[in-house]
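User: Structure please.
Assistant: Input sequence and predicted structure:
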Amino acid sequence: MVKVALAGLGFMGKMHLGIYLNKLEGVEVAALCDVNNGALNIKSLDAGGNIETDGAEIDLSGIRKYPDYKEMLKDGGFDFVDICLPTYLHADAAVDAMDAGFHVFCEKPMAISVKEAERIVDKVHETGKLFSVGQCLRYWPAYTEIKRLIDSGKYGKVRYAEFARFSMTPTWTRDNWILDGRLSGNAALDLHIHDVDMILFLFGKPEGLKSNGIAEKDGSISHITTLYQYRDKVVTSSGGWICSGSFGFNMRAMYILEKATVELDFSRNPVVMVYPGEGEKYPLPLAEGDGYYYELRNFAENVAAGSFSGTVTPESALESVRVCFAEIDSAKRNKETRI
């Protein structure tokens, strides 16, 4: 049995808590931490974010609860810490946990700056602790099956790919911290990093990029669109959270290969359709469950085995942060940026 301490019981914290309590075998929630006492005594998993939680009733009796993170680390009694705190707290929380002797799973983005992300990577190397980041698309069945199809070469090479992520404006965070670019990086980091990470996972690092964005009063970017420079393909992405509340949330992608077109759209069922150059279109079979479940199962199994799968490494998470900030820089300067 692997034991976890969960820090932060906002939207993603509740998402993770529900997986540990109701879906994932072999993991025990040993401790919870949140500065908000009300969050430590929730009775339901309803989170009110842009992806639906199960809303199930829960019983947290028997789980140790802490308003102070360092006190929780001092008491111990668990194998790893799951950090679902606001982004600007990620680096300190991760470093403190590793210094205290614990493995760490950290929600995305890895950190609020490249420098802070590098500090985490240095600490991983220093301590030898397992560390991964919630870049969940690398585990999401729709995306992983498309990667498997591309890697198989069945339909030839990718000639064009586009990624899109659209959300209503997030209003569910404590004191609206997520809308403060200094604390979250705004959508250009917090939301858009999902597609950036998937682009790097599929195609590797681009040679350069050019971005345009919609800037808010604090100068941070709430919607960003980028053209990435690859020698053998055209790749674009667009994402942000400026949609109206009635829109909700959707993520899409399109892949045009030499011998087929593949379309991913979470507003449709089936989610993924394959359109071969020869033959009839067909839905791509997908495993049940989502990326949140598979990433947490993978990390818990890594902790139990004492070895790392390497699907989301500290270095890959750092590279995704780097590319996001390269895009933000490009958008602000309205100039192409080399990577």
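Residues 2-134+293-306 form a domain with the Rossmann fold fold (CATH 3.40.50.720).
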